[in-house]
Amino acid sequence: MQFQLPYEDAKRKVRVASEIMFIDIESTKSELPSEDRDMKTCDLILKYSYPFSQFNPFTEEFHQQSIFVIINPHSGKGTALEIFNDKVRPILEGAHCNITVQLTDYQGHATDLARELNIDEYDTILCASGDGIPYEVINGFYQRPDRAQAFSKINIVQSPGGSGNAMSLSCLGATSASLSALRILKGKPSQCDLMAISKSSSDEVILSFLSQTYGAIAQADIGTEWMRFIGGIRFDLGVAYEVLSGKKYPCELAFKIKCKNNDEVMEHYQNEVGKYKNNSSTYSNLKNNNRDIQGARGIYRDDSVEFDFTEQSQDKNVSCGLQLRKLTEDDFQLKYHEEFREDTSMRRLPEDWEIYDKDKTENMRIFYSGKMPYIAATTNFFPAALPADGAIDLVVFDSRSKFASTANALLSLEKGTHVWDDCVEHMKVEAFRLEPKSTTPCYISVDGERFPYETFQVEVLKGVLRTILWEGNYTVTGFLENGYSSK
């Protein structure tokens, strides 16, 4: 059988690419499970095109999906609603989804909506916006008395609509809204880690899905809020200014270390990948000679499409994200919060923590910690990040490094090779505490949102965020390939 199939190309934002596909129905069917051999061709393609998806009509769990869409109409360049209506809604309606749309009216509105939402009515919350709305939704869920049930049941996903679309790119490999919609339909529901942040000024705990930063990156992000109308380039301009200024941002830092250098990070990464590589289609796709891996953006396309029904994993629970499970309140208990509340200084730390080199913290230029690889479309800041490895990736730049070295590392962010530069320290930690020491006014950023200038502590909440991952893992970053080539 031969036919032409139009599809959204990950490398293009608007145009639709197409390929000629050849399917040898008879020889393929002979290799299928007996219950699938007599299926109609269209049903067979549909079943194996959505092997892990809750939208697969051939699974016992299938039902018509209800999606609650939250849109910040002022997000990014102010076109989020238009993007959703033009690029996302038609695809969701084509999949017969029940769609409810809610526009936000004020900062924190999405938090209120998520806190009060009737979770029995919906399967997914789609944040058609930048990264601010997912942040608010996650914290709204965290404030619910039934938070374990809410996080267990509802997928929290994003389609691009703002200047920062890290969740869509990291989880779905999509910078275009239409591709993200398609991959939300076809992707695998998975449970990923979140980070819990304790404040020194109050008992309040907030959740973070993306990152925390202090120093030049925070200044470049929060300090350019007034330039949101120009889009993501505002961040690049801010970073350039910070590097040229040569400023340093002193602090004190302590952490529970998991991997102290790149060699240990590589070993950890390989071990985590090894847990699913023999069964997961994700891993086989990395090695597939028919695929052109775009390491610079972590996105791939098929240059020759070969449809193989037998290639897909038959185990729905195989994933780099955790198997779907019902959460309990125990999953939200913090290991280090009470100790932090008793003493927020560095004088009293958990026994298995260590204090980071003070000579380095006194000369800090960039402190950046995170759980997702991509913080922007061309910024692969945490290339070793994994969905549910119980670790926070940490990247540190020293202000004493030569300008050329720092500039070279920052110019390597798109490919994610900066972590191999001598002027960068790259670690994984289970928790950390940071006390800012700058004598001049500066910012701390959490998921791109301004955070109070105070001591804070972060620890992992393992596997509590239910989202949808394209093929069960984060977007390809090229971390191992770059690591081997750097040696």
From TrEMBL:
Annotated transmembrane regions: none
Stored SUPFAM superfamilies: NAD kinase/diacylglycerol kinase-like
InterPro entries: ATP-NAD_kinase_N, Diacylglycerol_kinase_cat_dom, Lipid_Phosphate_FormReg, NAD/diacylglycerol_kinase_sf, YegS/DAGK_C
Entry GO MF terms: ATP binding; lipid kinase activity
A biological process from GO: sphingosine biosynthetic process
Pfam family, one: YegS_C
Keyword Transferase: yes
Domain DAGKc: from-to ranges: 62-200
Any one Gene Ontology cellular component term annotated for this protein: cytoplasm
UniProtKB keywords: ATP-binding, Kinase, Nucleotide-binding, Transferase
Protein name: Sphingoid long chain base kinase 4
Source organism per UniProt: Pichia kudriavzevii
